[in-house]
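Hi, here's the filled form for the chain we discussed.

Project: internal
Contact: R.S.
Residues: 103
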Amino acid sequence: MFGFHDHVINPRSGRPESHPSWVGEVFHTWLTWTMAILFIVFSVFYYIEWNGFLFSFCIAAFGVFLIFFGFYRHFALNKKKADLCKAEVAYESSLARAFESFN
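And the returned structure, exactly as it came back:
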């Protein structure tokens, strides 16, 4: 997506961790959904108040576009989180195999 990355590896322990940009991505996703709702509400208000169908339709269409864009960002981040979980499982299983050799 736009500026959020894959998981990172902690240089001290080697454990996979979430990238700090993921916090911003969650904020941007919620901001996108909030703006979409505001655009749709404003388009309804504009149509009721001034009967401007074309302008209110354009605003509502942009709001619907923002909703789909927010879902796209949300699902992309969920995919990154799933990859992080797989990396954590692989890391823990490699540690378990390493400590089994000592027993």
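Let me know if anything looks off before we file it.
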